[in-house]
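Allow me, if you will, to draw on your knowledge of protein folds for a short while. I have a record of one protein: its chain in single-letter code and its fold written as discrete structure tokens. I remain grateful for any guidance, and I place the record below:
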Amino acid sequence: MGVIGCLQVTSEITELLRTEVGAASARTVAIGGPTVESVLASLSSSLDEDAIELFRHELAELPGAILPAIVGVWSAASLAGKAFVLTSAPLVRLLQFARERRVELTTALDEHSVTVTVSHVPDRHAAWYRADVA
């Protein structure tokens, strides 16, 4: 995810999941197995075409295993009645992440919420874990 696009996408996803429509869409995606295309289809009624294209671009940069992990953590938080936040963090070790083509997903839990943070360098990912996007 690019820095600006990533922040916009993670913020919008967090806000959408706080709505009943967004939560219902996420539950449907979780049941069917989350993919970039299933996430985009579930969001299509909530976003305009430019936003859908931004989401497609940003989500396609992530490894395919990331979306099921995020949806799984959201689902657990939702079932527990906890707030869920998806965010992107600036990298402290930018060169190391770029050299290693690393994508990092962290989960932080506290009494009231669950926060999932994605960290990576845009366009610096190993080919083997890229998401399949139509």
